[in-house]
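Read as amino acids, tokens; as here:

___
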Amino acid sequence: KKEYADFYVDYMVSNLRDWIYKTKAEVLIPVPLHKNKYKQRGFNQAQLLAEGLSKALSIPVDNKLLVRTMDTKPQKKLDNKERMKNLEKAFSISTNSKKSEELFPYKRVILVDDIYTTGSTIEACTNVLQKAGCLEVFFVTVCIGSGF
């Protein structure tokens, strides 16, 4: 829920601040929602977390660079193999980004998402970012699935 964002940001900052600074990340990138999902929900939970982290840690957010190009099925009912297949070609680098004409603008980024279950979403986003020229991709999430 949207109203929980501040609580989760405070928790993340108090537990991850030192690690986040050690990454030397230049930017926080929220995992994007497809425009249809955004219209339905009215907000992107990963973007709320990224903006809160940005404010607390003085690290900029780029929520325009990485886009979700496919309206994929919800991941929660899929197994690991289905999750990876579901996310193939789901993300890309925006051609509308202010910096799209340049070489990839960041060497180190932190992806921000709400839940890490199998790693499929983070892996799909990381692949796109690295193919575009990003050297190091780190990630932070609020929750992690069992078994990790």
Residues 5-23 form the longest helix (19 residues). The chain has one domain: 2-144. Strands lie at 27-30, 66-68, 91-93, 108-116, 136-144. Residues 39 and 110 are 25 Å apart (CA to CA).
